[in-house]
Design goal:
Chain lengths: 319, 393
């Protein structure tokens, strides 16, 4: 059945071509940069190897360092759809792999009954057909090509789910008992992310390339701000990145990630800021820090007061 | 084949030799990593070699990233990897072979004589204790035991089969009530020739409630650490998927994987090798903060086994406990000193933590651990096996 495999070899060749054009991590980093994603050497090498070796990329790191964003950008580079599976507790095969369209199956049965078909075997053959199968993200990823599959926050799913995922990611097949095995001709590009609230099973990790994403260096964060927010001045970017860097070293419940830094800078720009002044910083703090305790700690500790005015311009010496 | 081909062949062979040498050097590197505790197994080593092929050139940075991406699997590995990389390649050509770096392993040793106030007459006897001896042993403070008595307690803890409190999960399973189960209803209808006469249902299932246990392994807790870790081992053995164990001292170490070995002796060896900060100080506040970052205590029972002897900032500990109490289902604090009727929680750390503790219990004797096991079992308590001596024995 045509839907079960990647149908068009010509189309396949085309995109292999697109990925084949990426012949080094440096080249990939340049492509990522064209799409406004600034990756360091390690991340670029990780993504490059994931594309070339056809292995899933397992990304860990603090929340907001750009794990999910990388998958989106890779999809944009490959001009492929992004298929996202957000994990949560209780996620099961019917929500992640496939499900049968029961309502249509029952309708079909009624119709068959009305037509006088009573042969159980024939009925089964009709009912368990691909057209009654609803593809969920993992099955859709095997049937869509090219595509980037993002399995987000795998640590939130329970470990039974990892068993399903293991089968899918090791052979790129899904077995439907009533139908047979569905196989991807060419494996999709797979990105898994985890916030490390739970140790993911060793067998799953073994099939992946593992990369830990750090918070960006001061210079990189300034570059990211300037690239993503064209209206942002260099002074403001340096001050915002400097403040974010210092807050990451302070004792906070949730230190800001790049995502928060971007939100904050955007909030400041919306209010017409050219430089970071303590008054503006105080009213926009909610974009950067999402915990009341953190906001209070920052206000109490004067982390956004005089310290900011005197040190932020110099980048506070972060490497 | 005519002569002119010979040179080419030799060239090819030389290249083959180079490649073989490279493969040897790289598998040697993987071996070094394994010795340092990184799970760089055969499959990962194959991945490493494949990654090197993809990256083409053998620049040190390519080797570095190819190895790091394929051979490591958690943040703890990264430090070890960097050390091994520096030691093995030393910034020189990848082929240069060096001796594997020394691995420091802290062995967990029982200190038999420490605090042994009273000695049993059969101190050396290794025979299992009788029921009445067990009864006496059950209430004895672990810190004041002889080596043989501790061994017996360890043996009994090894037999502790603890049950776990249940909670409703989001997963559904076939049931007599609940939501309509389309899949089984259709199957049933097909069997009856198309008439959906019998509806099938699925309902929420139950799961064991997660336990996150923190064992303080600092100097002041040394007499209890072994027993506590054995208790933790019993928890992991009973519910390997719903238990996380960390040790705290000057740093936080996740030891769940080590405790998954079924054999208590093997598990304890693995744990002691994994703990880098044995018998140091405690920075509970800092560690707790790290724990909140590393592990999700939402809905879990958090067990903290410590005497609350905080070397760091007690107010930080208080703040982290407040946060923990808002996330966790319950927080149980196990303090070995609480077994002493004269004990008052006076240390700054203990005072800062107590307002946020749901249950404050003793943890000095076998009886206290059994009691703790019952607390963790909740409604499932009837399945707990406790060791009691018969009074007539």
């Amino acid at each position: 059945m045509s839907q079960r495999t990647n149908p068009d070899p010509a189309a396949a060749g085309e995109v292999t071509g697109a990925a084949a054009g990426i012949d080094s991590p440096v080249k990939l980093a340049a492509l990522l940069e064209e799409h406004d994603y600034l990756a360091d050497e390690g991340l670029a090498t990780a993504a490059f190897l994931a594309l070339r070796m056809g292995r899933p990329l397992f990304l860990e790191g603090e929340a907001g360092v750009g794990k999910t964003e990388l998958a989106k950008t890779l999809a944009a580079i490959l001009d492929a759809p992004l298929i996202r599976l957000q994990c949560y507790e209780g996620l099961d095969a019917a929500q992640a792999l496939y499900d049968w369209d029961f309502a249509r199956q029952l309708l079909h049965l009624k119709a068959a009954e009305a037509a006088g078909v009573t042969d159980v075997r024939a009925l089964e053959g009709e009912i368990y057909d691909r057209r009654f199968l609803v593809a969920r993200p993992l099955l859709r990823a095997l049937e869509t090509w090219p595509c980037v599959l993002l399995v987000d926050e795998i640590d939130r799913a329970d470990d039974e789910f990892e068993a399903f995922l293991l089968e899918v990611l090791s052979d790129f097949t899904i077995s439907v008992p009533e139908l047979g095995t569905i196989r991807a001709q060419t494996p999709p590009v797979v990105v898994l992310t985890s916030n490390r609230t739970r140790e993911v099973h060793e067998a799953l990790k073994r099939r992946c390339l593992y990369h830990w994403i750090e918070h960006p260096s001061f210079e990189r964060e300034v570059a990211i701000l300037l690239r993503r927010l064209p209206a942002c001045t260099e002074e403001l970017a340096a001050e915002v990145a400097g403040a974010a860097g210092r807050l990451r070293e302070a004792d906070l419940v949730k230190p800001p990630g790049v995502a928060e830094t971007l939100d904050w800078a955007e909030a400041l720009l919306t209010l017409g800021a050219v430089r970071l002044d303590p008054g503006l910083a105080a009213v926009t703090l909610g974009a950067l820090l999402k915990y009341r305790e953190d906001q209070e700690a920052v206000r109490r500790g004067g982390l956004l007061g005089d310290g900011l005015a005197t040190r932020a311009g110099g980048g506070s010496g972060r490497a | 084949m005519p002569e002119p081909r010979r040179e080419a062949r030799e060239g090819r062979e030389a290249a083959g030799d180079d490649r073989a040498a490279l493969v040897r050097a790289m598998t040697g590197f993987a071996r070094t990593l394994r010795a340092a505790g990184v799970a760089a197994d055969h499959q990962r080593t194959q991945g490493f070699l494949a990654a090197l092929r993809e990256l083409g050139a053998c620049e040190p940075r390519d080797v570095y990233w190819a190895g790091r991406l394929t051979l490591c699997s958690c943040p703890d590995d990264l430090d070890r990897y960097d050390r091994c990389f520096a030691a093995y390649f030393g910034g020189e050509r990848p082929a240069a072979r060096r001796a594997p770096p020394a691995v420091t392993v802290t062995r967990f040793v029982l200190r038999p004589d420490e605090g042994a106030g009273e000695r049993d007459e059969g101190g050396e006897a290794s025979a299992a204790a009788t029921a009445s001896e067990i009864e006496v042993l059950r209430h004895r403070d672990v810190a004041r035991m002889t080596a043989a008595e501790r061994q017996e307690v360890a043996r009994l803890l090894g037999m502790l089969r603890s049950a776990r409190e249940r909670r409703r999960s989001r997963r559904r399973a076939p049931s007599h009530h609940g939501a309509l189960d389309g899949r089984r209803t259709v199957r049933e209808a097909v069997r009856r020739g198309g008439e959906p006469a019998r509806l099938r249902f699925r309902d929420r299932t139950e799961k064991p409630r997660r336990v996150v246990m923190l064992v303080d392994v600092s100097g002041s807790m040394a007499p209890y650490a072994d027993t506590l870790l054995r208790f933790a081992h019993a928890l992991v053995r009973a519910e390997p998927r719903a238990t996380e164990v960390f040790t705290v001292g000057t740093r936080l170490t996740r030891v769940t994987a080590e405790l998954r070995h079924r054999d208590p002796a093997v598990a304890m060896d693995a744990v002691s090798a994994a703990i880098p900060d044995w018998s140091g100080g405690t920075r509970l506040g800092e560690e707790l903060k790290e724990l909140l970052r590393l592990s999700d205590p939402r809905g879990a029972i958090v067990v903290i086994a410590s005497d609350g002897w905080e070397r760091g900032d007690a107010s930080l500990l208080g703040r982290q406990m407040e946060r923990l109490s808002r996330l966790a289902h319950r927080v149980i604090w196990v303090n070995p000193h609480k077994g002493d009727p004269a004990y008052r929680p006076l240390t700054a750390g203990m005072r800062a933590a107590l307002p946020y503790v749901t249950e404050f219990v003793a943890g000095h004797s076998l009886a206290a651990y059994e009691e703790l096991a019952l607390r963790l079992a909740g409604d499932a308590a009837r399945n707990v096996v406790v060791h009691r001596g018969r009074p007539d024995a």
